[in-house]
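Justification of resources, computational component.

The compute hours requested in this renewal are based largely on the per-chain cost of generating structure records like the one below. Each record pairs the submitted sequence with a full structure-token output. That output is archived, and it is also reused by downstream analysis tasks.
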Amino acid sequence: MAQIKANLVDGFIVKPNPSYKVILIYGQDTGLVAERADRLAKVYLKDNTDPFAMLRVDSGDIASDPMRLADEANTIPLFGGCRVIVVQMSSSKSIQPAIDPLLSSPPRDAYVIIKAGDLKKSAALRKSIEKAHSAVALPCYVDARAALNSIIEEEIAIAGLTLTREARELLLDNLGADRMASRAEVQKLCLYAMNQGEITEKDIADIVGDASNHQLDMIIDSAAQGQIGDLDSQLEQILRSGQNPGVIGSASLRHFQMLERCLHLMDSGASPQSALDRVAPMIHFKRKPNIQSQLVIWSSSKASRACELLGQSLANSRKHYPLAETIISETLLMIAATAQRARR
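The structure output for this chain reads:
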């Protein structure tokens, strides 16, 4: 059974076993999946500059034309070397009819990398690849603190910088769940501190935006502004990245409690700007325009009801944790529907 343990995946990517021709990279951390797929493709291609050596295809296209994948994988490279075909799983349509021929008759001069989300052990694609002698499955789990620390070490070494212990702890606390977003934040920080030699706490406070907090803000704004379609896709993305649904619910509750306080001040005669300036904790200036638009949509009584719903959903999600994602998501979508009706 060909599955590499999660802690050995990076070692496999540095020196992959060439007998594995179909490589499934899957997991909740979509950023890590994408990063590892890119790294593995570069290892296979080495210095090959042939533009036709690399092909990216969507799973929907493969599902519609199953024979295409085998045809591409068995095409002999014009300039030698090998071909790399990267398949992005983006739909629920099965690509098993396209994969099975490659597992029974592996291509000689090609590697097929499949990028997928979180797959259960019972998923047909994962089961078939784990059983095949010519294929391997590489799991990608959500970044732990040690993995984030590894990203920091890699990027500051490349930049030739050092990092104080206090700054490292602050940076770790401010990096989000997605690996690619976290690496981008560290790279941005290194660029900012390029001429200093050492990264300090002040640099991090100035530059690093919490990727997780930014995602939460987007979700909360979509709910409060009645943007149901955006909210649905944002919830799917953040939950796939490994975010705790309780964190989403708690952040949403705090936001609507703040809205309720502002709306009560406005009921007493305060202007929206004055209410935002008086409410605690202080609201960052970048957040104020969105919140001001929400104050037009919501009334104090409706905001109070939203707080009740969120409080109830948080309590229910703790009692029934396996259903937490559904409970929190449905509550936020219900709140978004209320906001959408109020906008009409």
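The first helix runs from residue 9 to 14. Residues 6-139 form a domain with the Rossmann fold fold (CATH 3.40.50.300).
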